[in-house]
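Q: I'm a student working through a structural biology exercise. My instructor gave each of us a protein and asked us to get a predicted structure, then write a short paragraph describing it. Mine is Phosphate-starvation-inducible E-like protein. I'm not confident about reading structure output yet, so if you can add a plain explanation after the tokens, that would really help. Here is the sequence I was given:
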Amino acid sequence: MWGTDTENFDARMNIFFEKSARGLLSLLIIAILLAILSGVIYTFYDLRLIMQLSFHAAFKAILVDILTVLAVVEILRTALAYFSEGRVKVTYIIDTVMVTVLTEVMAFWYKEMPWQSLAMVILLTLSLAVVRVVAVRYSPRSHRAEL
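A: Happy to help. First, here is the predicted structure for Phosphate-starvation-inducible E-like protein. I'll explain a few features afterward.
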């Protein structure tokens, strides 16, 4: 008899947790959408820099703005994947980090930096690419399809 009360309590707590997580995630998705909208508006606002700065400086600022918005879009994909699949996909997280790292690489093009820092960024990018390939190759979905 005690087992059924404990199981009912556990089931109610799981349902409460799932509904709470989905509610908070819904608020987070709204915040992410607002961040994307503000990023796009800010990118258009930075178009004025073309007339004020050199082309290199203006395009660098605009490019970093665009890549930052794309990183936030990848975060939105991660949140939406949690809604649809009930779990976070590692590939989406890796994609987000890769876009963010590539944004920094684009910013490095316009700076003098030591070769050690550049080598570290290249190594990080290659490591993320390898992890991305491994995550796709050994994903739970592909294992379920093979079974």
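A: Here are two points you could use in your paragraph. The two ends are 38 Å apart (CA to CA). Helices lie at 2-46, 49-52, 55-85, 90-108, 115-137, 140-146. It's a good idea to check both against the output above yourself.
Q: Great, thank you!
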